[in-house]
Description:
The complex is a heterodimer of chains A (about 280) and B (about 240).
Chain A: E1 2-4, E2 9-12, H1 18-27, H2 29-42, H3 53-69, H4 80-107, H5 109-114, H6 121-147, H7 159-183, H8 186-201, H9 216-221, H10 223-237, H11 243-267
Antiparallel strand pairs in A: 1-2
Chain B: E1 2-14, H1 21-27, E2 35-47, E3 51-55, H2 62-70, E4 77-83, E5 86-89, H3 102-112, H4 117-131, H5 146-159, E6 164-168, H6 176-191, E7 195-199, H7 203-209, E8 212-217, E9 220-226, H8 227-241
Parallel strand pairs in B: 3-7, 3-8, 5-6, 6-7
Antiparallel strand pairs in B: 1-2, 1-4, 8-9
Helix pairs in contact in B: 3-4, 4-5
Amino acid sequence: MIVQDQERHNVAGASLRAWDEIHDLAAHANLLIELVHRDLTVRYKRSIFGFLWTLLHPLLLMAIFTVVFSHLFRRETPHYETYFLSAYIAWNFFSQTVTNAMASVAWNGPLMKRVRVPRSIFTLSSIVSGLVNLVLSMLALLVIMLIVRAPLFPSLLFVPISLLIVGIFTLGVSLTLTALSVFFADVREMVQAGLPALLYMTPVIYPVSIVPASFRWIVDWNPLTYLIEIVRAPIYDGHLPDPRTTIAALAISLISLLSGWLIFRRLAPSFEGRL
Amino acid sequence: MNAIELKGVSVRYRAEKVRSLKELVVRGLRPNRPFFYSLRSVTLAIANGESVGIIGSNGAGKSTLLRVAAGIIQPSEGVAIGRGSIVPLMELGTGFEAELSGRENILFNGALLGRTRAQMRAQMDAIIEFSGIEPFVDAPIRTYSTGMIARLAFSIATAVDAETILLDEILAVGDAAFRERCDERIRTFVREGRTVVLVSHDTDAVLTLCRRTLWLSHGEIAGDGRSEDVIREYETHRTDAG
């Protein structure tokens, strides 16, 4: 890739060192802002509700799931809507962002052929756009909690840290999947098919207590269980997540980011000719 | 000082690409597929303030050469060095977002070229004025004609303060009046001591705008020198071959 040093030379042919890569991304911060701005505005430019759809979509789903499941799980989970939404919003961020990130690299393929930009910037912009939506959705949840008079706990202040950890995890997964999807179109289809399955393997809709012991290992080995838990505990349970869960979630995120970055870095130079 | 230096640059692709897991399973175990060379051991230097035309038939590697020079793609072999700020103006319509207005696209395009909003805002009026899209500047780009997009793209690329500008077949689209203004702007660029590299099939345009011409054939340099000489040679060769 290209090194842009202090003397403003573009040298293609030398492999990019980690530090230069971060430097290169920082130099394109302005483009990142434009990309996020484009992501957030273009999508709804021709619709009447516009940006509100970002909120309406999870709200509609919430209504459906709450009506369908709240009776079923009433005994285990009072305030089911809070129980469900606190986890579902985080889940939705993860699944939407991963999907968008893959689409974004495919979409912007022609762009990458014509201007020199760091290739990971499109993945990064998907994450940032996703985070903006995530924060807005969380605010919407807060409003819902006030309306249904769900208890509000001081532990809510921990939520930004949880969201950051989920964001790091999602960035790692997105980097891996976007890099792979450039080479194999099948990856996108596999992810599309796999995400709903993963949703049901994670305690988002149902409480963990109803999982039969023989299936418990699926939930225990699912990394998303821990990431969802650190978001839900401070919102719904009213206490900080168990330190072991937090450490597990943090470790999973960092491993995800490191491996995603290494895979992306390894594959990105060969994107040319496949986009 | 050289604006662009290529040393033994080759760009190659695998002739056959694996596109799906099924293909990977079926073909993956076979021995290596042959390489296709888009550029083969190209060494050249373009000095600051030079105006260079690049000619050659389709698939000769002209656009690949520009992309390597712009740092958009990495050579498979060799080293490419570009000094200072280089603005590539590649095929039409890229870097434009159909749903955004002309004005918003100027900002977006500027960001792609590494410019800030403030820098672009300062140039906004000049860009709009030069492109002649004034009445439509707040309408979405999807309503623009090809010629309008070409004019806007050229106006943006030449308005940002670049030391080197790379133009790929961009002049073919606009009408005669706009082309004249483009030519004039390119000449101004050269007079100001900036570097211009122009890929074109239009040898007359190359002849009038560029003192030096490179002729690419099958990814290799077939001729390099004064435009008159190289173009004459290229045309003789073409007539002989055809």
